[in-house]
């Protein structure tokens, strides 16, 4: 299911993290990044880069197979990145560099 190039995504899984298993763990107010992620996905769909229905199908398929150990709320970001890698919209190196830049910014704040 996965090919070389997804290590950048798989490496984001916290080894001490655990997948949510019950409804109370899944219920709750979305974090600010989740709302931003959904807005980004809407823009990608609007511009024709990644259709929302296609993305949701990918979330179902990849979220229950390749990315099953990721927290449910993080899967949309991981699957979106996976799909953009597949389509050649971004490269693994570009994604890795952006992730480093974002982590650096958070550490400064």
Main sheet specs: none
User: How many strands appear in the DSSP assignment?
Assistant: 0
CATH class category of the domain at 33-108: Mainly Alpha
State the end-to-end CA separation. Answer: 37 Å
Pfam families: NHase_beta_N
Domain Nitrile hydratase beta subunit-like N-terminal: 31-104
InterPro entries: CN_hydtase_beta-like_N (IPR049054), CN_hydtase_beta_C (IPR042262), Elect_transpt_acc-like_dom_sf (IPR008990)
Organism: Rhodococcus olei
Describe the model.
It comes from Rhodococcus olei. This is Nitrile hydratase beta subunit-like N-terminal domain-containing protein. Residues 31-104 form the Nitrile hydratase beta subunit-like N-terminal domain. The chain is an all-alpha fold. It has a domain at 33-108: Nitrile hydratase, beta subunit (Cyclin A, domain 1, Orthogonal Bundle), CATH 1.10.472.20. Helix content is 59%, strand content 0%. It is built from 6 helices and no strands. It has helices at 7-10, 23-26, 32-46, 52-63, 75-86, 92-108. α4 crosses α5. The termini are far apart. The relative contact order is 0.16. The model has no long low-confidence stretch (mean pLDDT 81).
């Amino acid at each position: 299911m996965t090919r070389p190039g997804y290590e950048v995504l798989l490496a984001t899984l916290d080894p001490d993290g655990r997948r949510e298993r019950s409804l109370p763990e899944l219920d709750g107010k979305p974090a600010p990044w989740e709302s931003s992620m959904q807005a980004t996905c809407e823009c990608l769909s609007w511009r024709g880069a990644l259709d929302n229905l296609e993305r949701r199908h990918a979330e179902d398929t990849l979220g229950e197979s390749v990315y099953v150990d990721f927290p449910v709320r993080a899967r949309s970001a991981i699957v979106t990145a996976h799909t953009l890698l597949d389509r050649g919209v971004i490269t693994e190196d570009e994604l890795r560099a952006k992730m480093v830049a974002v982590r650096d910014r958070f550490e400064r704040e």
